[in-house]
Amino acid sequence: MPIDLFGFTIGRKQEPTKTLQAFAKPEYEDGALPVSSGGVYGTYLDTDATIKTEFELVNRYRDMALQAEVEAAVDDIVNEAIVTSHEVPPVRINLDNINVSDNIKEKIKSEFREVVRLLDFNKKGVDIFKRWYIDGRCYYHVVIDEKQPKRGIQDLKVLDPRKIRKVRETKKKEGDTRTVPYGSQQKETREYFVYNEKGLYKGQGQGYSTTFGQAASGIRIATDAIVYTHSGLLNGQRSMILSYLHKAIKPLNQLRMLEDALVIYRISRAPERRIFYIDVGNLPKLKAEQYLRDLMAKYRNKLVYDANTGEVRDDRKHMSMLEDYWLPRREGGRGTEISTLPGGQNLGDIEDILYFQKKLYKALNVPISRLESEANYTIGRATEISRDEVKFTRFVNKLQTAFSELFNECLDRQLTLKGILSREDWNKLKADIYYVYENDSHFAEVKNAELMQDRMNLLRDLSDYAGKYYSHDFIRKHVLRQTDDQIREIDDAISTELDDPRYNRSEDPQSGGGAPLFNEIEHDTNEKGVILEDIDRKIEEKFDIAKKDKELKETVSEVFNSILEDDDDELKDTLNDVFNSVRK
């Protein structure tokens, strides 16, 4: 970066950034509140009682999560997306697709582990993902040491999404008199977050407001100080972030209303009632009513069941909606009569309840078989898995991809603060970085086992073409699907096993080729010293034999030399004949 000092510029001159012109204004997918410079004030009257603000949306989503069916579905999704284990972390970073040095890769992995530690993701990962899934968004305040910013992120504070909102303020550039419609070059955009401890959008009266005046009545925070991750779902106007629970609002309300109506109908229509037709003769109206009330008090049920205590008590003042009917009858009728009013006939029919329940499950993107207690858990091949399970697995993978933006945002701040990567370099690399989540789904295990078997069969078929039409590196990466880290780990393990006699043995029986491998028998660790002593003893015996052979050769050489020095010609001829015969 160039330095301006005393009117001079020291350093490399930066080229001005070129902005591409467009006739349409850009579309943003972060749900920021668009405002114009100077502020636009206004109010509205909500006569339809519809949701107008994110404050109401988040409250509605959290109320929905307390319902039994929704909570079971959310827990199933969260438990499938984030798997906690004592052996492996719930999420890991993969850098195989980026083209940087190994040193930079190790630094990025180290900073990712630091981000996971700051989030306490190994312990609170399920809660963080569940809060993001229900609210549809999550905010974290990036706390740094202002005196030493190169130390990186010191803490990540979670923020209530009802108290913070992203704002995008646009204003016309100074001196720009062009009239190109919606030209992005005409306006300057400034983004920031607004935080209010008492909550945003809540007005003084009974309603809510989305005006810029109230939205800006809080603390303005720079975008670099906030880590913001949302679900990626937008409303029709693309102005508000929605949760994945949003499309289940209507089915849940319909199911609750139908259940309440069914309960009321059953309580009111389940028991049988008696109908008393009382002959009042020619009595006047007032006396006839008095006579009827006297009979009601005389034959009225005195015993009342108390549901709170489980006791049967006598309560004459108790008025129940299940009382009998008393009807007067004038002279000329059939006289006093008592008949029975039957109860409801189709009280066991709950097909409409089941219909709206299945509709709710579909809106929650959870297979119905997972939420039915009568359904059995079967173990089968991956080819026998239902289509709903396949769709559910893909839905969970989509959620994990959207949630991974949280790690990208945290790494953006961390790597930039520590000077490992610039903001421009990180923006180029993050598209090739992905995160691997731990998965214990039975479907995934069965599928991986079948895929591994298919890969082994394909590898067996390609063994004759390896090194001729396909390279070994190509087979390992594209057939066995091994990453660069896995290839290095496997190569190191193979090189180590080559020097280990437990894994590598000779075919010669004299050299121990017939001995079993380490995984075929159980070794006694106490025999290790005895084995080493036997090896030393055999080595000493070999040295003794070699030494004796050398002495014997020297003795034979001296005898031949003494014979050759002798003048006996016949002995020399005899020795030459012996040598020639031995040579033949």
How would you describe this protein?
Helix 3 crosses helix 4 (121-135). The chain starts with a strand and ends with a helix. The protein is built from 17 helices and 18 strands. A hairpin with a 6-residue loop joins strand 11 (233-234) and strand 12 (241-242). A 4-stranded mixed β-sheet has the order 3-7-8-9, with no helix packed on it. It has a 3-stranded antiparallel β-sheet with strand order 6-5-10. By secondary structure, the protein is an alpha+beta fold. Among the domains are: 25-245, no CATH class; 271-341, no CATH class; 441-482; 486-517, no CATH class; 548-584, no CATH class. Residues 39-49, 202-215 and 511-523 have low confidence and may be disordered. It is elongated.
